[in-house]
């Protein structure tokens, strides 16, 4: 099956995030970030915990029922990735804006931590799913 990857890369899941979630090393922090987003969408909680750097890894990951809407990479540098991830909780469209830090550990890129801001998407602001439409004309339609 060649379904599109949840990370929004435009590539099939089987050749994008699936191999990384299955244990292949991510070639870059951006690839790890994309695979972690896909794991949140798909509920791959064990992978999410494993992809965390051991120095900051939580003892467990609590599953959520968040409905993820889309991922937009704002900037990717050597060991940081800035992104916006849209999600829906109850009837609210939200945007998670984070600058994530990554480090290599035992040959694998791992998520260390991030500075994030979560805010409700305004009706006239760009939809956080990355469509380019205003929220009211996209994920915020009633």
UniProtKB/TrEMBL annotation:
Pfam family, one: YchJ_M-like
Residues annotated as signal peptide: none
Family: Belongs to the UPF0225 family.
Entry's transmembrane regions: none
InterPro entries: NTF2-like_dom_sf (IPR032710), SEC_C_motif (IPR004027), YchJ-like (IPR023006), YchJ-like_M (IPR048469)
Organism expressing this protein natively: Mariprofundus micogutta
Name of protein: UPF0225 protein MMIC_P0479
HAMAP family: UPF0225
Sequence ranges assigned to domain YchJ-like middle NTF2-like in this UniProt record: 28-114
PANTHER family, A to Z: ADENYLATE CYCLASE-ASSOCIATED CAP C-TERMINAL DOMAIN-CONTAINING PROTEIN, UPF0225 PROTEIN SCO1677
């Amino acid at each position: 099956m060649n379904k599109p990857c949840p990370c929004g890369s435009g590539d099939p899941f089987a050749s994008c995030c699936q191999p990384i979630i299955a244990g292949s090393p991510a070639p870059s922090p951006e690839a790890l970030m994309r695979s972690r987003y896909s794991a949140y969408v798909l509920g791959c909680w064990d992978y999410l915990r494993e992809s965390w750097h051991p120095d900051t890894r939580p003892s467990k990951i609590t599953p959520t029922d968040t409905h993820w809407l889309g991922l937009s990479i704002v900037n990717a540098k050597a060991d940081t990735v800035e992104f916006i991830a849209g999600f829906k909780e109850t009837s609210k469209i939200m945007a998670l804006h984070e600058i994530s830090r990554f480090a290599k550990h035992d040959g694998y890129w791992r998520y260390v931590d991030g500075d994030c801001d979560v805010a409700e998407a305004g009706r006239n602001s760009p939809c956080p799913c990355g469509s380019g439409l205003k929220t009211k004309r996209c994920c915020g339609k009633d």
